[in-house]
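Q: My collaborator sent me two sequences in one message, no labels, and asked for predicted structures for both. Can we handle them in order? The first one she listed is below.
A: Yes, handling them in the order given. First sequence, followed by its structure tokens:
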Amino acid sequence: MDNLVFMDLLTIGTITAANASTLNDGAAACVLMTEPAAQRHNVTPLARVVAFADAACLPIDFPIAPALAVPKVSYS
């Protein structure tokens, strides 16, 4: 605990998707399965994937990747 750095968020400014990774890093896990598999394992889904898209750009342009991916998703 002694090595933790505590920052006053009021002095940092606005936290956005572009700068949040410098403030905290974490890990996550996501389990994807079919509906029959969920029933077989007796689990209740917490979310449903309805669409996805990806977009590649230069590392310097990473904040615009969502703007490139969203138009690829078609909600019909």
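Q: And the one she listed second?
A: Here it is, processed independently of the first:
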Amino acid sequence: MGRARGSRGNGGSSSGDWMASAVKRPGAFKAKAQAAGKSVSQYANQVTAPDSTASPLTKKQGNLAKTFAKYRP
């Protein structure tokens, strides 16, 4: 039998657990955004733009911030 649709094979943990495990450096991206004088969402849009010169890590953090924003109520 195959796995259930949407399952990541993580032993049946709740859907929000992946979010906690995705964050490696809590608060780091927010600190970068504040240092740049922008909100987290503004900074995420800036660093994920195609012409951005941000580091690969910062771009990944920006993409994660955009993903998390989709889950906000």
